[in-house]
Amino acid sequence: MNILENLTILYVEDDEFTREEITEFLEFEVKKIISAENGQEGLEKFKQNKIDIVITDINMPIMNGLEMAKEIKKISPNTPIIVTSAYSDSDYVIKAIEIGISRYVLKPIDVDELLTMIAKSAKELVFDETLEVHNEYIRFLIDTNPAFMLVLTNKEMEHINTKFLEFLGYENTEDFLKEHKKNENFKLIIEMIEEIMKNKKGNYLTINKNGLKEKFLVQYREFPKMDKNIFIFSKLTKEDKLKIFLEKIKSHCPDKIKQEIEDIL
Fold first, then answer.
1. Which of 15, 189, 220, 233 could lock 148 by a disulfide, CB 3.0 to 4.6 Å apart?
2. May I ask the CATH class of domain 8-136?
């Protein structure tokens, strides 16, 4: 399937001849092309329609292309924006980079180059959508898991599952992270995470809730290609607690009893 045929594009250009020429060309390549003659009109049409990609000139009356792009990025940070301009002034480039624009087509516009830029932006959109669906699927699996779980991305806490949040007394991960300094368990959890990531092995963590202490077995798995780390906190069973107890007393027992404990373990 042509990657362009399902796209809705907003094209903003104040020069009437250029606007009509490019609009007519793109009508045969994409699903829908919406045009505007200045940044203010373009911004309003962006708000009124579901736009996949924005193509804009820079120097326009009322509101220029970069001002419009900045407002669009506030509304939809991931929307690709392609700039068309006769200017090669470094000031424009720096401002565009600051806004989050990385694709340019110099005037007079080469339609083949413009299509290449649109296709690259479309592929990024497909990738981002696929990644978001994948992440939603992972979050669903994590949130429906009866064990306590948390996910780190690039070593930053990204998500704590529903069961763990309920136990800690929070409705969502954002609230927990905002108030973590008030939570006595947060420091213990972070220290445990750092220790596990350093030693690459599981350990035990005691969490205090309403004056009652509960002990958890912490399991850890690293996914380097995704820059993710997943931690699972499982409540200890009676058998787990017995195992911990036997491990503690083993070093203080005679050799014969040590062997019996080893056989039990």
1. 233
2. alpha beta
